[in-house]
Specification:
Blueprint: H1 8-35, H2 37-44, H3 46-50, E1 55-56, H4 60-91, H5 97-138, E2 145-146, H6 147-164, H7 167-176, H8 182-187, H9 189-203, H10 208-245
Parallel strand pairs: 1-2
Length: 247
């Protein structure tokens, strides 16, 4: 039986329904996160408390904004798997069976790599950077940390690494689409290394260990991307050779 094709209006209705499902789940999860927001808050400020500092607020309303921000970010992270599932259910009817299998592998991997990037920044980069900046500030200033500024700084450090860790998957996708090749990646390796060094120096404290803790993972991700690109290319060549050899 032929697949039923959806009209444009039906596509919009399906999209609206899945957005509402995702928002409903987000609201429920947000309520749970706000119930545990004090525990989440204490965990996220643990690097500051271990250093002997306490966050401050300058108005009663800032307390509400900070708690809502903490609970909201936690809720977004917990809702992400369900949102990706709804995205998959929306786009799957328009994909071929091969594309569906590829997307099923790609979406969970993208979520995992993003989480790994954030965790790497949280456990490795952020504590090192925070320790250096607090030590530098304490040498000449009286350090008073606002809660809103602290969480903004935390997000600006951790979230970019989530996207940086998506590099291997992006390379795999572009290689599969024929827009990148392992040869091109190897030929431009020195430029990629230069960009990694510049970014690592800019976002890490001015000491060798801190620089290496940022630069080396970025270089390793680039080398991993080259290996994955080569693997995808070889599989495509094998599939094309098998198809050509069939009678």
């Amino acid at each position: 039986m032929a697949d039923k094709r959806m009209t444009w209006v039906e596509h919009l209705a399906d999209l609206r329904r899945r957005i509402l499902y995702t928002l409903a789940v987000f609201v429920v999860v947000l309520g749970g996160c706000l119930g545990w927001v004090a525990h989440i808050y204490r965990y996220l400020v643990s690097p500051v408390t271990r250093a002997g500092y306490t966050l401050m607020v300058v108005s009663p309303g800032e307390v509400v904004r900070v708690y809502l921000s903490v609970g909201g970010v936690a809720a977004v992270g917990l809702t992400l798997p369900f949102a990706l599932y709804q995205l998959w259910r929306f786009v799957a009817p328009g994909l071929t069976p091969v594309e569906q299998r590829y997307a099923l592998r790609l979406l969970p991997a993208a979520a995992v790599m993003f989480v790994l990037g954030v965790l790497f920044a949280w456990f490795v980069i952020f504590p090192t950077l925070l320790h250096f900046l607090l030590h530098l500030a304490a040498a000449n200033f009286q350090v008073m940390l606002r809660a809103g500024s602290y969480f903004s700084f935390l997000a600006n450090v951790c979230l970019p690494f989530g996207f940086i860790f998506e590099l291997p998957l992006a390379v795999v996708f572009l290689t599969r689409m024929g827009l990148l090749t392992p040869r091109w990646l190897r030929r431009n390796r020195r430029y990629a290394y230069l960009v990694s060094v510049v970014l690592g120096v800019l976002i890490s404290p001015p000491e060798l260990i801190s620089h290496l803790s940022v630069v080396l993972p970025m270089i390793c991700l680039y080398e991993l991307s080259i290996g994955l690109s080569l693997l995808v290319q070889r599989r495509q060549q094998q599939a094309a050779h098998t198809a050509a050899s069939r009678p």
